[in-house]
Amino acid sequence: MSSIELTSSQRAILTALVNLYTEREEAVKGEDIAAEVDRNPGTIRNQMQSLKALQLVEGVPGPKGGYKPTSNAYKALDVQQLDSAAEVPVTHDGEEVDANVEEISLTSVHHPDLCRAEIHLRGSVRDFHEGDHVVVGPTPLSKLVVEGDVDGKDDTNNVLILKIDRMEAPAEQPAH
Question: pLDDT digits over 5-64, tens only?
């Protein structure tokens, strides 16, 4: 399948659908997607028509109906579907949150005052705000823990940018 160019609005809506569907494992109502991306339900219905035409979503009729992402949706968002994704805990201001870490990218580690980490979450970042304290980890293999304050976020791609206060991994060899 060739690469599909999505608008930022389509990408945000499709990402919200994939995240909600992954959490619930059932069709997602347009109103729930609208709440997730802070848009009008009518806008969501209109966008879903274009996403259906692109074969990225399918409609599920009936009282328990809504929308489900197709396998093409995961490809378009470059999301790997895992049968059992490893759980990497996220703590937000001391409370564990219902999100899972998809990727941790370290940026500018060579400059201690500018040390940042991009935390890609499977789950919404809308409840995180600049200055909030976040702890990520330990990761499954290296037992890495990253701790810091939110310096920015990208709601569309579910990315938190942390100013790192502390980063730690055990010195012993991890069990692989």
Answer: 888 889 889 988 988 887 778 899 999 999 989 999 999 999 999 999 999 999 988 888
Which residues, including other chains, have CB under 8 Å from residue 153's CB and lie 6 or more apart? 125, 128, 130, 159, 160, 161
Residue pair 164/110 in contact (Cβ under 8 Å)? The answer is no
Q: Alpha-carbon dihedral of residues 106, 20, 71, 57, nearest 10 degrees?
A: -130
Which amino acid, 12?
A
Residue pair 160/125 in contact (Cβ under 8 Å)? The answer is yes
pTM of this structure:
0.52
SS3 125: coil
Q: Tokens 């995180």 map to which residue? A: 128
**What contacts 65, CB < 8 A, 6 or more positions away?**
27, 29, 59
Question: CA 50 to CA 1: how far, in whole Å?
Answer: 17
Local structure of 6: helix, strand or coil = coil
Burial of 80 (0-12, 13-18, 19+ CB in 10 A): exposed
Cα three-residue angle 130-153-162, rounded to 5 degrees: 65
| Inter-CA distances, 136 with 62, 89, 94, 154, Å | 40, 6, 11, 17
